[in-house]
Design a protein that fits this description.
Number of strands: 10
Largest sheet: 7 strands, mixed
Number of helices: 10
CATH architecture: Alpha-Beta Complex
Oligomer: single chain
Structural class: alpha/beta
Length: 243
Amino acid sequence: MIRHSLVIPAYNEAALLPRLLRTVAVARDRYAGGADAVEVIVADNDSTDATPEIAKEAGCRVAHVAKRTIAAARNGGARVAQGEIVSFVDADSQIHPETFNAIDAAMARGDVVGGATGVDLERWSPGIAATWLVLMPLALVAGMDTGVVFCRRCDFDAVGGFDEERRYAEDVAFQWALKSLGRRRGQRFMRLKGVKAITSTRKFDRHGDWHYFTMILPRAIPGLIDKAKGADLAQEYWYTDRR
């Protein structure tokens, strides 16, 4: 019986997907419920490289999602998920060996609606550290996080999954909806300890270590008001073919 469904949204991720899948294989082997209780779904968002073939060769289920938004890819993977618990991780990440055991322990609690593992970055610099110091307090105040984000499948359905009209920040909106659902039941969104995923710094590698201050913040806030500006930023930053 499948307990966990791990969904990996992926568009042209042939370079980094194998690294993630190796860490997932270790975590499955370490899972107390047995590796067969964890299914891995790669939600292929119309890739033009070898992403789907790599996923199939690694034993993953592949869900083809034609609509080119990250939210649609996440939802497309979740639609075919068979597990009681559904979780999501980006293809450029690496997960902790105890990920599924830690999620199980959290979901065994009646006061938890879902949660996230948090992340460490694969490299640091003054610019990256400054970005971290700006973003982390916001995450702490909001009670949200990133990394491997998880919840019960029934609660994923209850909040309607990810908003496919959002080209970015769909994960923030999803967590907010999940937190609201939990609040009505007296449940909380749990930030796990000791099982952080490692996320790549490829956006910093491409745009520069200070780009949150020179590019994202100056353009993202006006983009919340002007949808056209927001769409331009999303296309350049999240949806370009350049990886």
